[in-house]
Amino acid sequence: MTGKLYLHLTRHGETMFNKMERIQGWSDTPLTVPGKEVAKSLGRGLDLKFDAVYTSDLRRTVETVRLVLQESKQTHLKETMLKDLRELCFGEFEGLPSADMFETVLTHLGYESGEAGMAQTSFAEIVSGVCELDTTNTAEPWEVMETRVKRALETIIQREASEAEKHILVVAHGLTINTAISLIAPEKVDPLLENASITTLLYEADSLTVQTVGDTSYILAGQKKKRSGHT
User: Fold this and answer.
1) 152-160, long-range: CB < 8 A, 24+ apart
2) How many CB atoms neighbour CB 181 within 10 A?
3) b/e per residue, 204-214, with b = 16+ CB within 10 A?
4) pLDDT per residue over 107-142, tens digit each?
5) What's the pTM?
6) 218 three-state secondary structure
7) How far is residue 216's CA from residue 202's CA, in Å, rounded to a whole number?
8) Is the Cα torsion angle 119, 125, 126, 132 positive or negative in sign?
Protein backbone atom coordinates (compact mmCIF):
# COMPACT_ATOMS: atom_id res chain seq x y z
CA MET A 1 0.00 0.00 0.00
CA THR A 2 1.44 3.35 -1.01
CA GLY A 3 1.22 6.49 1.08
CA LYS A 4 -0.62 9.61 0.01
CA LEU A 5 0.98 11.33 -2.98
CA TYR A 6 0.01 14.97 -3.47
CA LEU A 7 0.63 16.55 -6.87
CA HIS A 8 0.53 20.34 -6.62
CA LEU A 9 -0.10 21.51 -10.19
CA THR A 10 0.95 25.15 -10.44
CA ARG A 11 0.42 27.53 -13.33
CA HIS A 12 3.49 29.57 -14.34
CA GLY A 13 3.74 33.30 -13.61
CA GLU A 14 2.45 35.94 -16.01
CA THR A 15 4.35 36.17 -19.29
CA MET A 16 4.67 38.84 -21.96
CA PHE A 17 2.05 37.09 -24.15
CA ASN A 18 -0.27 36.69 -21.14
CA LYS A 19 -0.02 40.46 -20.58
CA MET A 20 -0.65 41.15 -24.28
CA GLU A 21 -3.55 38.64 -24.31
CA ARG A 22 -2.00 36.63 -27.12
CA ILE A 23 -2.11 32.88 -27.72
CA GLN A 24 1.04 31.34 -26.31
CA GLY A 25 0.97 27.57 -26.55
CA TRP A 26 4.41 26.31 -27.57
CA SER A 27 5.60 29.89 -28.09
CA ASP A 28 7.63 30.84 -25.07
CA THR A 29 7.80 34.44 -23.93
CA PRO A 30 9.57 35.42 -20.69
CA LEU A 31 7.94 36.23 -17.38
CA THR A 32 6.95 39.85 -16.86
CA VAL A 33 8.00 41.74 -13.73
CA PRO A 34 4.57 41.00 -12.16
CA GLY A 35 4.98 37.39 -13.31
CA LYS A 36 8.24 37.10 -11.40
CA GLU A 37 6.70 38.80 -8.37
CA VAL A 38 3.72 36.43 -8.21
CA ALA A 39 6.08 33.44 -8.40
CA LYS A 40 8.14 34.90 -5.56
CA SER A 41 4.97 35.54 -3.53
CA LEU A 42 3.93 31.94 -4.03
CA GLY A 43 7.32 30.74 -2.81
CA ARG A 44 7.26 32.98 0.26
CA GLY A 45 3.74 31.89 1.15
CA LEU A 46 4.26 28.15 0.81
CA ASP A 47 4.26 26.08 3.98
CA LEU A 48 4.80 22.86 2.01
CA LYS A 49 8.08 20.99 1.83
CA PHE A 50 8.38 19.25 -1.49
CA ASP A 51 9.96 15.87 -2.16
CA ALA A 52 10.44 16.42 -5.90
CA VAL A 53 9.82 19.03 -8.58
CA TYR A 54 8.63 18.68 -12.19
CA THR A 55 8.08 21.27 -14.93
CA SER A 56 7.33 21.38 -18.61
CA ASP A 57 10.37 22.02 -20.79
CA LEU A 58 9.23 25.56 -21.66
CA ARG A 59 11.11 28.57 -20.30
CA ARG A 60 8.20 30.14 -18.45
CA THR A 61 7.67 27.13 -16.19
CA VAL A 62 11.38 26.74 -15.46
CA GLU A 63 11.69 30.46 -14.62
CA THR A 64 8.69 30.17 -12.31
CA VAL A 65 9.82 27.07 -10.46
CA ARG A 66 13.29 28.46 -9.74
CA LEU A 67 11.81 31.61 -8.21
CA VAL A 68 9.38 29.54 -6.14
CA LEU A 69 12.15 27.28 -4.83
CA GLN A 70 14.39 30.25 -4.09
CA GLU A 71 11.75 32.04 -2.05
CA SER A 72 10.60 28.88 -0.26
CA LYS A 73 14.22 28.03 0.56
CA GLN A 74 14.12 24.70 -1.25
CA THR A 75 16.84 25.28 -3.83
CA HIS A 76 18.34 21.88 -2.98
CA LEU A 77 15.59 20.48 -5.21
CA LYS A 78 16.20 20.44 -8.97
CA GLU A 79 13.41 20.35 -11.50
CA THR A 80 12.83 17.39 -13.79
CA MET A 81 11.54 18.60 -17.15
CA LEU A 82 8.82 16.63 -18.93
CA LYS A 83 7.86 17.63 -22.48
CA ASP A 84 4.50 15.95 -21.86
CA LEU A 85 3.63 18.81 -19.46
CA ARG A 86 3.75 21.42 -22.25
CA GLU A 87 0.88 23.70 -23.13
CA LEU A 88 -1.23 22.82 -26.17
CA CYS A 89 0.26 23.73 -29.55
CA PHE A 90 -2.11 26.12 -31.36
CA GLY A 91 -0.42 25.93 -34.78
CA GLU A 92 -0.81 29.08 -36.89
CA PHE A 93 -2.80 30.78 -34.12
CA GLU A 94 0.32 31.02 -31.93
CA GLY A 95 1.12 34.64 -31.12
CA LEU A 96 -2.21 36.00 -32.38
CA PRO A 97 -4.60 37.97 -30.13
CA SER A 98 -6.60 35.51 -28.03
CA ALA A 99 -9.90 37.29 -28.74
CA ASP A 100 -9.33 37.00 -32.49
CA MET A 101 -8.64 33.27 -32.29
CA PHE A 102 -11.71 32.53 -30.20
CA GLU A 103 -13.92 34.66 -32.46
CA THR A 104 -12.61 32.92 -35.58
CA VAL A 105 -12.77 29.41 -34.17
CA LEU A 106 -16.14 29.67 -32.45
CA THR A 107 -17.93 31.29 -35.38
CA HIS A 108 -16.42 28.54 -37.56
CA LEU A 109 -18.01 26.04 -35.16
CA GLY A 110 -21.42 27.64 -35.69
CA TYR A 111 -21.76 29.99 -32.72
CA GLU A 112 -23.07 33.53 -33.26
CA SER A 113 -19.93 35.02 -31.73
CA GLY A 114 -16.84 34.11 -29.75
CA GLU A 115 -18.48 35.39 -26.57
CA ALA A 116 -21.59 33.28 -27.10
CA GLY A 117 -19.52 30.21 -27.88
CA MET A 118 -17.28 30.53 -24.83
CA ALA A 119 -20.31 30.18 -22.57
CA GLN A 120 -21.48 26.97 -24.24
CA THR A 121 -18.49 25.06 -25.56
CA SER A 122 -15.73 22.81 -24.21
CA PHE A 123 -11.96 22.76 -24.57
CA ALA A 124 -12.25 19.70 -26.78
CA GLU A 125 -14.58 21.47 -29.21
CA ILE A 126 -12.42 24.61 -29.35
CA VAL A 127 -9.29 22.57 -30.01
CA SER A 128 -11.06 20.63 -32.76
CA GLY A 129 -11.91 23.96 -34.39
CA VAL A 130 -8.31 25.14 -34.08
CA CYS A 131 -7.11 21.97 -35.81
CA GLU A 132 -9.71 22.31 -38.59
CA LEU A 133 -8.62 25.88 -39.37
CA ASP A 134 -4.87 25.43 -38.94
CA THR A 135 -3.37 25.37 -42.44
CA THR A 136 0.11 24.49 -41.13
CA ASN A 137 -1.02 21.12 -39.75
CA THR A 138 0.96 21.78 -36.56
CA ALA A 139 -1.94 22.38 -34.15
CA GLU A 140 -2.29 19.62 -31.58
CA PRO A 141 -5.48 17.52 -31.50
CA TRP A 142 -7.29 17.27 -28.16
CA GLU A 143 -6.79 13.51 -28.04
CA VAL A 144 -3.02 13.97 -28.32
CA MET A 145 -3.07 16.55 -25.53
CA GLU A 146 -5.12 14.26 -23.27
CA THR A 147 -2.82 11.31 -23.96
CA ARG A 148 0.40 13.11 -23.13
CA VAL A 149 -0.98 14.82 -19.99
CA LYS A 150 -2.20 11.43 -18.76
CA ARG A 151 1.23 9.99 -19.54
CA ALA A 152 2.92 12.83 -17.60
CA LEU A 153 0.79 12.13 -14.53
CA GLU A 154 1.51 8.41 -14.77
CA THR A 155 5.23 9.08 -15.12
CA ILE A 156 5.31 11.23 -11.99
CA ILE A 157 3.24 8.73 -10.01
CA GLN A 158 5.41 5.80 -11.06
CA ARG A 159 8.56 7.67 -10.06
CA GLU A 160 7.33 9.16 -6.80
CA ALA A 161 4.78 6.82 -5.21
CA SER A 162 6.11 5.22 -2.04
CA GLU A 163 4.97 4.13 1.40
CA ALA A 164 5.56 7.65 2.74
CA GLU A 165 3.35 10.70 2.28
CA LYS A 166 4.91 12.94 -0.35
CA HIS A 167 4.30 16.35 -1.88
CA ILE A 168 5.34 16.99 -5.48
CA LEU A 169 5.51 20.44 -7.09
CA VAL A 170 4.51 20.38 -10.77
CA VAL A 171 4.77 23.70 -12.63
CA ALA A 172 2.87 23.65 -15.92
CA HIS A 173 0.31 25.62 -17.94
CA GLY A 174 -3.33 26.59 -17.71
CA LEU A 175 -4.68 24.22 -20.34
CA THR A 176 -2.33 21.44 -19.25
CA ILE A 177 -3.69 21.66 -15.71
CA ASN A 178 -7.27 21.82 -16.93
CA THR A 179 -6.67 18.79 -19.11
CA ALA A 180 -5.52 16.91 -16.02
CA ILE A 181 -8.63 18.03 -14.15
CA SER A 182 -10.88 17.00 -17.05
CA LEU A 183 -9.43 13.49 -16.98
CA ILE A 184 -10.44 13.09 -13.32
CA ALA A 185 -13.35 15.44 -12.53
CA PRO A 186 -14.57 17.34 -15.62
CA GLU A 187 -17.07 19.33 -13.60
CA LYS A 188 -14.19 21.03 -11.75
CA VAL A 189 -12.48 22.47 -14.84
CA ASP A 190 -11.73 26.20 -14.44
CA PRO A 191 -10.86 28.07 -17.67
CA LEU A 192 -9.74 31.09 -15.62
CA LEU A 193 -6.92 29.56 -13.58
CA GLU A 194 -4.78 32.40 -12.28
CA ASN A 195 -1.02 32.60 -12.74
CA ALA A 196 0.82 30.83 -9.88
CA SER A 197 -2.39 29.27 -8.55
CA ILE A 198 -2.19 25.69 -7.29
CA THR A 199 -4.47 22.80 -8.18
CA THR A 200 -3.85 19.78 -5.96
CA LEU A 201 -4.40 16.17 -6.99
CA LEU A 202 -4.22 13.29 -4.53
CA TYR A 203 -3.06 9.84 -5.58
CA GLU A 204 -4.17 7.23 -3.05
CA ALA A 205 -5.27 3.59 -3.34
CA ASP A 206 -4.48 3.54 -7.08
CA SER A 207 -6.81 6.47 -7.72
CA LEU A 208 -6.47 10.20 -8.48
CA THR A 209 -8.85 12.78 -7.03
CA VAL A 210 -8.97 16.56 -7.36
CA GLN A 211 -8.56 18.19 -3.95
CA THR A 212 -8.40 21.91 -4.81
CA VAL A 213 -8.57 23.97 -8.00
CA GLY A 214 -6.88 27.32 -8.58
CA ASP A 215 -5.89 27.95 -4.95
CA THR A 216 -4.30 31.42 -4.56
CA SER A 217 -4.05 31.44 -0.76
CA TYR A 218 -0.29 30.81 -0.82
CA ILE A 219 0.23 33.83 -3.07
CA LEU A 220 -1.77 36.01 -0.70
CA ALA A 221 0.21 34.68 2.28
CA GLY A 222 3.46 35.51 0.51
CA GLN A 223 2.30 39.03 -0.31
CA LYS A 224 1.34 39.53 3.33
CA LYS A 225 4.78 38.36 4.46
CA LYS A 226 6.46 40.84 2.15
CA ARG A 227 4.32 43.72 3.44
CA SER A 228 5.14 42.82 7.04
CA GLY A 229 8.84 42.55 6.29
CA HIS A 230 9.10 38.80 6.97
CA THR A 231 11.17 36.57 4.68
Assistant:
1) 152/54, 152/82, 152/84, 152/85, 153/7, 153/180, 153/183, 153/201, 153/208, 155/82, 155/84, 156/7, 156/54, 156/82, 157/5, 157/7, 157/203, 159/52, 160/5, 160/51, 160/52
2) 22
3) eeeebebeebb
4) 999 988 777 777 788 899 999 999 999 999 999 999
5) 0.94
6) helix
7) 18
8) negative
